[in-house]
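Support request from a user on the community tier.

User writes: "When I paste my structure tokens into the form, the page sometimes reloads and wipes my input. The last time it worked, I copied everything first. Here is what I submitted, just in case something in the input itself triggers the reload:"
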């Protein structure tokens, strides 16, 4: 039941991501501050002076800490976190806690590295 809850939360987070990306102005999110909530504007928050030409706004703002820069990336961070925690709770029922934790951490690292690699290639 705990794992299922985290998968539901992951689904909600992804629904928010898609709403922000595809229906921002038609949703209640459109009433919120666009510089954080509207992906067409908020993606610039990662950069100094909101301009990619000036580089990252702070250490990790375009990589590991991107989830702190705007709503879309925040909910992406939450979606991924919820998925991995959900998998952890499924696996926890079948094996030793520390082994599961190691696999979940390893899976998260591999997931993050593969995303970064392919995102930069595409």
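"...and here is what came back when it finally went through:"
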């Amino acid at each position: 039941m705990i794992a299922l809850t985290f998968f539901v939360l992951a689904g909600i987070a992804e629904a928010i991501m898609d709403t922000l990306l595809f229906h921002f102005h038609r949703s209640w999110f459109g009433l919120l501050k666009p510089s954080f909530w509207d992906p067409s504007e908020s993606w610039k928050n990662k950069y100094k002076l909101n301009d990619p030409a000036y580089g990252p706004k702070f250490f990790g703002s375009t990589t590991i800490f991107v989830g702190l820069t705007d709503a879309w990336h925040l909910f992406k961070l939450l979606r991924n976190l919820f998925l991995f925690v959900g998998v952890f709770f499924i696996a926890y029922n079948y094996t030793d806690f520390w082994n599961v934790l190691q696999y979940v951490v390893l899976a998260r690292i591999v997931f993050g590295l593969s995303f970064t690699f392919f995102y930069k290639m595409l």
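Agent notes: The reload is a front-end session timeout and is unrelated to the input. The CA atoms of residues 37 and 71 lie 5 Å apart. Residues 97-121 form the longest helix (25 residues). Escalated to web team.
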